[in-house]
Design goal:
Blueprint lengths: L2 E2 L6 E2 L17 H32 L4 H20 L2 H5 L9 H30 L15 H30 L4 H14 L4 H21 L3 H23 L9
Antiparallel strand pairs: 1-2
Amino acid sequence: MLQNCKYCGASLNQTAKYCGDCGKLIERDNQLIESRSVHLVIAFYITFLLYSIATFIVYKNEIISLRTEIIIESVFIALTLLFSFFDAKNILRLYNTKYISWQNLTFAIVFPIFTAAIVYVGMDGLNKLLFEEIDNIFYDYASYTNSLFWAVLFTAIFPPIFEELAFRGFLFNQLRNFANPWVTIIATAFIFALVHFSFLSILWIFPFGLVLGYLRHRYKTLWLGIIVHFIHNFLILMIDYYYFQNDPLKDLFL
């Protein structure tokens, strides 16, 4: 969509800050910004939904090697960085500590301790009830050399950094260009839960995403969400690692 200078009527470049004919500062059409954001949100949703489907199929139909795991994680990181490039300036502003106080930092540390305990007990109970099995994350990495290192990297480090960048960074920014804060928080939480492609996980990932979205909106930073996300994932992984170490059948997975 072309825009004309409201002072002299000259055609304007979409990225220009000043009119090339009269030199006046350009006031951008909000509809143009909203339209661009809508298209980016749709592209983001379709891309990551297809990625999630492909990943689900790969995990379901073959034994995952370390090489395959690295490829899967690398694709997610690459896609996240690619989309973030379109809003790099605004996303970089979210890596600030201006509004972080000891109170909300304390919350970011304590809250995931409770969520990890609740999710671990609740999901363990549901898996036993519905599928008569125990879901232990560490078994997926047990056969790798330096298995604990890879488990921590792929479970507790990469997801907090790049999922927060993707969903509470890029996606949140784009949705805020045409939706109010609460719709944005709910929408990002829903898409965040949906792309994890697990029915049972949606039961806790959606409310978890609501809290992460609120923290990002309230304090204008990604750091609190990253801390919450990291501690939550790390604690669940460590609990799984503890039970794996005490499993008499663990040698079958090595």
